[in-house]
Design goal:
about 300 residues, 8-stranded antiparallel beta sheet, 4-stranded antiparallel beta sheet, 7 helices, elongated
Length: about 300
């Protein structure tokens, strides 16, 4: 059965990459699992998708139709791919207790977001959240072993699950012990692969909006570690408010890339330079736009 556009969009949101919120990420580390179940009981359709992130980087995925686990970074081929099986996550009683699919009919989605965090001070965190058709449904408090409902239809699920101590205790053990052990294992494999510092390679591109507006974009590729500082400068003065970030994002090989754009008057183009500072550079990399013959991009 083909998936309609809203479900494809939901699938992309549920399993998409985490976007880092700043150029310099925090020193804590996390391992996050994203599960998606497409369900239409009347057609006998129950399809699972899983995607796993280490910090902000997707490291492998799984799809129930092919039963294939696909590594998304080279070092995962040696590290081993581990996750809770979807049949454990999407318990058989979930739909029965909530009676959502029976009442609503048609094709629906269940989403689960779970994982753990190892913070700089040595403390640990864990989370487990269920969603239904893109809305919060029920979540787990590992400290109290209680389930917290986000809508009335989840109340019956809460009552049944809290009467099953093995289910709650099993989730607590996974979040506090198993997940942390897997996180540390993946970090060690990643570290062995990426011990070498990789400096950024950069270039500046432009896009002409009209005769009075042009967008310059500074791009940095293939750098590691993630921490980098990028600024646009006009005649050596930092443009603090004019530039807009695209943030740092991971490449498939474990390195990172960055885009930083600024809107300018085309007549002022020669006054602007992009400055990149990184651990792999002995001095800042200064980049200006160089127009190639015949090149002229318009919006």
């Amino acid at each position: 059965m083909p998936l309609n556009r809203p479900l494809l969009l939901l699938f992309g949101v549920a399993l998409g990459s985490f976007g880092p919120g700043a150029l310099c990420g925090p020193p804590s580390h996390s391992l996050s699992y994203f599960y998606l179940k497409l369900s239409e009981p009347s057609q006998g359709l129950h399809r699972f998708f899983v995607k796993v992130h280490l910090d902000d980087q997707p490291i492998f995925r799984f799809e129930s139709l092919t039963r294939k686990m696909e590594p998304l970074v080279p070092w995962m081929k040696e590290a081993g791919k581990k996750f809770l099986i979807p049949e454990w996550i999407f318990r058989a009683d979930l739909e029965t207790l909530s009676k959502l699919d029976q009442e609503a009919g048609g094709l629906h989605t269940w989403q689960v977001n779970l994982g753990c965090e190892l913070r700089e001070d040595g403390s640990k965190g864990g989370f487990l959240h269920y969603g239904y058709d893109g809305m919060d449904f029920i979540s787990f408090n590992k400290e109290t072993l209680w389930w917290v409902t986000a809508q009335p239809l989840a109340q019956k699920v809460k009552e049944e699950w809290e009467e099953d101590p093995r289910w709650s205790q099993g989730n607590k053990v996974f979040l506090e012990e198993t997940c942390i052990a897997w996180l540390q294992r993946y970090l060690s494999y990643k570290k062995k692969t990426l011990e070498k510092i990789e400096p950024p390679v950069g270039k500046v591109t432009h896009k002409v909006e009209d005769e009075r507006l042009e967008i310059l974009t500074c791009q940095a590729f293939g750098f590691y570690p993630k921490e980098i500082w990028a600024t646009w400068r006009r005649d050596r003065e930092v443009c603090k408010y004019e530039a807009f970030h695209r943030n740092v994002a991971p490449n498939s090989d474990g390195t990172y890339y960055l885009r930083l754009s600024i809107e300018i008057d085309p007549k002022e183009r020669d006054h602007f330079r992009c400055h990149l500072e990184h651990k792999g550079l002995q001095e800042p990399l200064v980049l200006g736009f160089k127009e190639e013959r015949g090149e002229r991009l318009r919006g």
